[in-house]
Write a structure and sequence with these properties.
This protein has about 260 residues and is of the alpha/beta class. The protein contains eight helices and eleven strands. The strands form two sheets. Strands 4, 5, 6, 7, 8, 9, 10 and 11 form an eight-stranded mixed β-sheet that branches. A three-stranded mixed β-sheet has the order 1-2-3, with no helix packed on it. Its EC number is 2.1.1.163.
Length: about 260
């Protein structure tokens, strides 16, 4: 299996809010790398040298990974994408669920991450993963082919968020969705640095500004938001989000 990818990003200038992706869908935005986007400081990406943290044994318990994974509702034959795949913690179980006829487009901007993914795929005898070496402003995805695009704690690191969201939106089928995991900024007990968290309000602000609407959410994970977005012209109905204050109260009561 060829080596290739991790999708995250870098840094740079302050730019102002721009039109919806539905208004600029014929061409990608002309965007410089950002230090700030819509009042949010853009975080630095994780290096491939920290890849072992992604597959730490305690991750399942800390993040209720299986519970979150089940919400993806994967089926055989689907074309799915793990954007910012790293060494494949999520990629390999996705590949098993969409087999035998489905495939996973595994995108990363760090070749070293893709090499680690390729090695893990070989050891697991998984052959329906297509590694893609993305760029900081382009995930190199085919247009209109993706049923579900997964991003786990990676979107907040994109230095070119508008360019990336334009490409992501373009890659989705009419009923395709983005499944977005981000650590909750509203919860100070989540043991993650503040720059690597996002609030639900900020996520919706950025996604709505780029032609994506909220169509589903799952609010029972211990540390993370899980939000599903579709293109703004999708037949899937838009929903109103549950207030994070209510979510945290429910989690506290159930725990």
């Amino acid at each position: 299996m060829p080596a290739s990818t991790h999708l995250c990003v870098a840094q740079d200038a302050l730019l102002s809010e721009s039109p919806s992706a539905s208004d600029t869908s014929d061409a990608p935005p002309k965007e410089s790398a950002r230090r700030v986007y819509l009042d949010r400081i853009v975080a630095q990406p994780m290096s491939h040298r920290g890849a072992s943290w992604l597959i730490r044994p305690e991750r399942e318990e800390e993040e209720s990974v299986r519970e979150g994974f089940d919400q993806l509702q994967l089926r055989p034959g689907m074309v799915v994408c793990d954007l910012g795949c790293g060494n494949g913690f999520w990629t390999l179980p996705m590949a098993r669920d969409v087999a035998p006829d489905g495939r996973v487009l595994a995108v990363d901007i760090q070749p070293q991450m893709l090499q680690k993914l390729a090695a893990r795929s070989r050891r697991a005898d998984v052959d329906n993963v297509q590694p893609i070496l993305g760029r900081i402003n382009d995930p190199k995805l085919p247009a209109g082919q993706v049923d579900l695009l997964l991003m786990v704690d990676v979107y907040h690191e994109f230095s070119h968020p508008e360019s990336m969201l334009w490409s992501i939106r373009r890659s989705l089928k009419p009923k395709g969705v983005v499944a977005l995991f981000e650590y909750r900024a509203e919860d100070p007990t989540v043991p993650i640095k503040p720059l690597h968290k996002m609030s639900k309000r900020q996520i919706i602000r950025e996604y709505n500004a780029n032609g994506l609407k909220l169509v589903r959410e799952y609010n029972q994970l211990p540390w993370q938001h899980l939000m599903f977005f579709a293109r703004d012209d999708s037949p899937l109905p838009e929903i109103d989000p549950v207030a994070t204050k209510d979510v945290l109260e429910q989690i506290k009561a159930s725990g």
